[in-house]
TrEMBL record, chain A:
The protein's name in its UniProt record: ABC transporter ATP-binding protein
Stored PROSITE patterns: ABC_TRANSPORTER_1, ABC_TRANSPORTER_2
Keyword Protease found: no
Organism listed in the record: Paenibacillus terricola
Domain ABC transporter, residue spans: 2-224
InterPro entries: AAA+_ATPase (IPR003593), ABC_transporter-like_ATP-bd (IPR003439), ABC_transporter-like_CS (IPR017871), P-loop_NTPase (IPR027417)
GO MF terms held by the record: ATP binding
Record PANTHER family: ABC TRANSPORTER, ATP-BINDING PROTEIN (PTHR43158:SF1), SKFA PEPTIDE EXPORT ATP-BINDING PROTEIN SKFE (PTHR43158)
Domain of life: Bacteria
TrEMBL record, chain B:
Pfam families linked: GntR
Domain annotation HTH gntR-type: ranges: 9-77
InterPro entries tied to this protein: Tscrpt_reg_HTH_GntR, WH-like_DNA-bd_sf, WH_DNA-bd_sf
Protein's UniProt keywords contain Repeat: no
Transmembrane segments: none
Keyword DNA damage in annotation: no
Gene3D superfamilies: Winged helix-like DNA-binding domain superfamily/Winged helix DNA-binding domain
SUPFAM superfamilies: Winged helix' DNA-binding domain (SSF46785)
SMART domains: HTH_GNTR
Sorted UniProt keywords: DNA-binding, Transcription, Transcription regulation
Full protein name: GntR family transcriptional regulator
Source superkingdom: Bacteria
């Protein structure tokens, strides 16, 4: 489980996270929602130790994060970071060389699943294909946790469906997923937990099935209540 | 297997209902094996945890049985299976009654209207069926 306890973060005078606490269990999909600037990406970066926090703590499986632990967590940013001139096959070879936990078999399975061509160069890919390759690079790592920043952003409907299908497959089974998105409509039935952020504060957090069961509300219904005030 | 989810009812209960409908219409029969949780999640595009929860619920209701590592099966308990059809129909009728409650229609009028509409629907359905046969 990834735990955040009263995490605070400032950029200069701007309070980006104002005491954020939530848990993201293993084997579940936790979604961080919020309008732009709510602090979603900062939370993912803070978990990865990519940005220092001022106070509060982050615990992974009960202990403070340390170097070896980061091999068990994959962070997929919202943009593909591979150099444009590389072919997909070159990207795979690079990952194979540099990462112990790169799983070639799974990478190739995903390549077929996403209908990508290993000979294609990164800079020739459409937005949807680039998003799929980006996600593929994360999914192909053997890791217990995956942090996905806006995996659906700017992606066409068909690629979006292909990406959503991954979350109902054995590709994510047993892993803890934290994803950020503001486009929730098509994927809300896939989410276990939802954490709603507004200006660095959590306004609401709940299990989506409980919300439907107890209040008869969809995640989108709750978002409307929370953000349209 | 195709299932469109509404987002306001718990997904796992929608899955259970989907199975009940398939049992009530005879598409799934006593003793039939059903997909594994993982396969079901994949087929329906739902979270594997939700598939797990739906199967647990169906086990508790006695709709399916799972023995050891073999795939889950539809129960052979005919009493349970017989109740499903009744349960689904009662539920649908209750929903309907709730929706006409505000119109304050007398029972006799309502029943005769249902009969008329039903007969009309069946007539147009059989016409359509014949039409389709005519084409082929």
């Amino acid at each position: 489980m990834i735990e955040l306890i009263d995490v605070k973060k400032r950029f200069g005078l701007k309070k980006v996270l104002q005491g954020v606490s939530f848990n993201a269990p293993r084997g579940a999909i936790t979604c961080l929602t919020g309008l732009n600037g709510a602090g979603k990406t900062t939370i993912l970066k803070a978990i990865m130790g990519l940005t220092p926090i001022q106070s509060g703590s982050i615990r992974i499986d009960g202990s403070a994060p340390h170097q070896a632990m980061y091999e068990r967590i994959v962070y997929v940013s919202d943009q593909l970071t591979m150099p444009g001139r590389m072919r997909i096959a070159d990207c795979f070879a690079f990952m194979q060389d540099y990462y112990r936990n790169w799983n070639s078999e799974r990478a190739n399975e995903l390549l077929a699943r996403f209908q990508l061509n290993a000979a294609d160069k990164v800079n020739s890919l459409s937005k949807g294909m680039a998003a799929k390759l980006n996600l593929l690079m994360g999914l192909a790592m053997d890791a217990d946790y995956m942090l996905l920043d806006e995996p659906f952003s700017g992606v066409d409907i068909f690629s979006r469906e292909e990406i959503a299908a991954v979350f109902s497959s054995d590709m994510v089974e047993g892993r803890g997923i934290i994803l950020t998105t503001h486009e929730i409509k098509e994927i809300e039935h896939l989410l276990d937990y939802v954490v709603m952020l507004d200006h660095g504060l959590i306004t609401k957090q709940f299990a989506s099935e409980d919300m439907r069961m107890e209040e008869g509300k969809s995640v989108v219904d709750v978002m409307r209540e929370v953000y349209k005030r | 297997m195709e299932l469109l989810f509404n987002n306001r009812d718990p997904v796992y209960l929608q899955v259970v209902r989907h199975f009940k409908e398939r049992i009530a219409t005879g598409k799934l029969q006593s003793g039939d094996t059903i997909p594994s949780r993982r396969e079901l999640a994949n087929q329906l595009g739902i979270n594997p945890n939700t598939a797990q929860k739906a199967y647990k619920e169906m086990e508790e209701q006695g709709l399916i049985v799972t023995e050891g590592n073999s795939p889950s099966r539809i129960t052979s308990d005919t009493i349970i299976l017989g109740r499903i059809r009744e349960e689904l129909l009662t539920e649908a009728v209750d929903t309907f009654l709730a929706s006409v409650n505000n119109i304050e229609v007398p029972a006799e009028q309502l029943l005769s209207l249902i009969r008329t509409r039903l007969e009309k629907k069946q007539a147009s359905q059989s016409e359509q069926d014949q039409g389709e046969k005519g084409v082929t």
